[in-house]
Design goal:
heterotrimer; A alpha/beta; B alpha/beta; C alpha/beta; A: alpha/beta; 10 helices; globular; C: alpha/beta; six-stranded mixed beta sheet; four-stranded antiparallel beta sheet; 12 strands
Amino acid sequence: MDVFKDKLLSSFIVFENQLNGQKKQPFHQKRREAIDVFEVKGFPTVKDEEWKYTNLKPLFNKDFNVFHPGEDSLEFSDIRRFFLSESDTYKIVFINGIFASWLSSTTHQNYDICTFSAALENHRDVVDKYAGSIARNQESLTALNTSFAKEGAFINIPDGKVVDRPIEVLYFTTDSDNNTFIQPRNLVVVGKNAECCIVERHQSLGKQLTVNNSVTEVMAHAGAQVTYHKIQNDDDNASLIDSTTIKQERDSKVTVHTFSFGGKITRNNLEFDLTEAGAEAYLYGVSILDKRQLVDNHTIVNHMVPNCYSNELYKGIYDDNSRGVFNGKIHVHPHAVKTNAFQENNNLLLSDKASIDTKPQLEIYADDVKCSHGCTIGQLDEDALFYLRQRGIGVKEAQALLMLAFTTDALKEIKIPELKSKLNRLIARKLNVNLDFNL
Amino acid sequence: MDILEKVTNSDYKYGFYTKIDSDKAPKGLNEDIIRFISAKKEEPEWMLEWRLDAFRQWQKMEEPNWAHVKYQKPDYQDISYYSAPKKKKSLDSLDEVDPELLKTFEKLGISLDEQKRLTGVAVDVVVDSVSVKTTFREKLAEMGIIFCAISDAVKEYPELVKKYIGTVVPKGDNFFAALNSAVFTDGSFCYIPKGVKCPMELSTYFRINEAGTGQFERTLLIADEGSYVSYLEGCTAPMRDENQLHAAVVELVALDDAEIKYSTVQNWYPGNKEGKGGVFNFVTKRGICERNAKISWTQVETGSAVTWKYPSCILKGDNSIGEFYSVAVTNNYQQADTGTKMIHLGRNTKSTIISKGICAGNSEGSYRGLVKIGPRAQNARNFSECDSLLMGNACGSHTFPYIEIKNKSAKVEHEATTSKIGEDQLFYCNQRGIPTEEAIALIVNGYCKDVLNQLPMEFAVEAQKLLEVSLEGSVG
Amino acid sequence: MLKIKNLHASIDGTDILKGIDLEVKPGEVHAIMGPNGSGKSTLSAVIAGREDYEISQGSIEFVGEDIMDLSPEERAHMGLFLSFQYPVEIPGVSVTNFLKTAINESRKGRGLEAMPAKDMLKAMREKMAMLEMDKSFMSRSINEGFSGGEKKRNEIFQMAMLEPKLAILDETDSGLDIDALRIVANGVNKLRSKDNAIVVITHYQRLLDHIIPDKVHVLFNGKIVKSGDKSLALELESKGYDWIKEEITA
């Protein structure tokens, strides 16, 4: 890991020299501070309690390209299947970390749905106010992202505006002469009583190793409503470290859905700061893994003030040699009374080689609260399986049906019909059955 | 809040100090001190070597800081590692016990007089570093049960001690266990022969008396095949402004088909209302279960300034069972980080964890637990329930369960809740004429019932009273 | 239709069925009665192919084929239906989704095309009307939060949808009030034909007032100890099971 760390540190100097005028912007000062944090802390190791169950060493012992040439040979028809819709969504598409305008559909009417690099030029006030102020700058991988932050999605919705269609954010990687390391940086600012819905996906199209170290910051102002879907169904050569931090003001409502069906190592750091009364946070996760895949879901909900609500439900199904990690924390700060916070993590183990490590935590400093967490590990119900088979449903299909049923609670809040059917298809394919789960 | 102000003045009623002539080692820790302890105890050479090995391992270790507790780490060179009430010769009858000491135990409510003793409880009493009296020893011997001070056992039953000591908690297991292994001075030893159901509760009372001493007792309990024993321990200490260190090790061995029930009522001095003084209770307790064996830990933790304690079960044998029932109460500035580890290695192993935390004042209580199901542990089952009750808004309550599953047939359920005593519950009691103080005691006792029910009768009553005393003045 | 010879079955080393002989012909209704613990539910589970039981001796033939080595779903595809004494709750699977999967899997098993959704919904509505069931049933999770009566009605509804050759109704009357019993029995009677058969397993006679059996068998201690016509059921109702026990031990 040290070799790649050194490469990153020297790459920063190269990167900085390419910035020209941007070097004088306040945001660049944050980059500089961040690279210092990364230099001191380096990549996290399993000795770090938060990385106890996920070893990044085999990943970062390899060499990666940090800078990427432009790629313009990709046609929409090649990648259509990764999109929700051809025309009914806004699209911000990147190839190897570089904006692909011919595949995208951005807007500046009523609201800004464009790129972070554009915002660095044209929306400096927004960038300076929010970028780097919500993310956890002391986390070394977040700091690493910040130090190179230049490109990603920028979504800025003014007060009272409701975005009329879903926003798709897609990151593709293609083969180059080496493994690919990209660091997307997304900033989402949703004004008072404004609404938007985002679908994010990372997809590797090549054969070489890909690592995405992605950081997303979401600011939800009073009364804002944000729904964020993350579809993680990448190839076995692709890994993703996703750090998403969300700050919520009064009466805002933010829902994050995380669907993890593929990828070599997927680490999700999802953290909420509920800073004003009436804020509601919903966290739903579905992981269905096989082969040697690993998903590590780390969530923290910070209840910083009284009268907020959070509800977390994560479901995992693990087959073959796959591994699941769940580490969820509800943190009720002093005086955050009348907090209602719930967390549930249910897992199914399908193979003797699969394993689960789960650590649901409560850290509570206020007395008048209702907090609970629950966690189960088990198998499919034999009685239910027999019942289904008695009605003529084959073993594989019966198991698939029960597994889908197991995930239902975590899927029912999805409001986009196209997304719902896409997910159902993905799940059926993942479970290797030809069942249409919709009627 | 008035009531809070009024009754926070509840006193630690075991906080007296007894003037007893004592034999004390100079402060500090080095190989010479260990040789001194070993010589004082007239130990065989192998025991001394074992201690020295532990000491050398300890020197390379660092004091752990992963627990959710904050304290000034003790200066391990500023502690006296040996303190014994002076005795004229060996204690064969009660008449020879220092009369001051006898008075102490009367104050504690523990009579060493076998005639007056509640029938059915045999007691070993450990003051500071040494065992002063074991009752009913002869009667138990008739059944082949050995119940004595561990220092006697080292001399009288060296094969048994040598065979089992350090097999459950290895010398270098952790910082405090290594320290204990190097300097332990006394504790109880118990062996139940094959097929014997021990007819009475075995009990040890621990008391720290001298200032500037640490208590490092070591308990080794072996239940041979098909045997049964219920064991109780209680602890108290004088009120002192400085912190006193208690680093004990308890090892339980339950061989095939054996059952051990181990109950603790821990009431070391918790420090005063400002958080000054009190005992640092850093204890390693672990049991190993062979085939069809069962170990059940029950603890009521109300004392100590800082508690760091995880009574655990290694479920090695097929069909073995581990249980952990805990009530941990913290008030004022107490801190407790306690829980259990259930390590499932054998097939069809089962474990149950019931933990009730109650936090009041400025205290912090944490449940920390591990449930681990190994790849060979087919059909393992675990059920965990960890509830916390908060009283007042200056305390903190935390839950850190670790669940690691490596077998697909495992069924594991973990639940945790945090809540406070409901206003409506209190009002309901008040309306029926029950004052708030009593109502709280009533509700808390009800909340802890699943755990208290596990205690033997004599202890259950004492534990209930302790809960009330510990929580006095915690009404917000 | 169903031919059972000298069937012995055990679970976890305990013998439950100790030599059952039974033959059911197309068009017939058989009732199997017996006290608790006589092996009634085990018999139905073994016929349906539950894998927990060890079969040490005997054979089961269904529509002329030995089904001993077939999986539960293969037996179901051949037209065997078991109405469960305790229908299983499956949260997250709607009745509609479940039935659609069951019907199409059975059709696939028989080499047929999937049923068009329109036809299926029409059939569902008809059968639900027959059983006086509310339409809201279709979108509810299967058996989850259903009352005892609703669960049993749901079983007969599925039977109506799947059109089996042989239906085994395991204690279908338990948990039903008198009106529900009538509705369920009427539903069953409407499904009777000269080509299919029904085995009613019950502790009491009252269901047999509505579904008239051709033959009645008494199962006791893992064996059929007495067979007769419907009058045997009435005799059992008035005298209880003790006289049978005495008769056997005498």
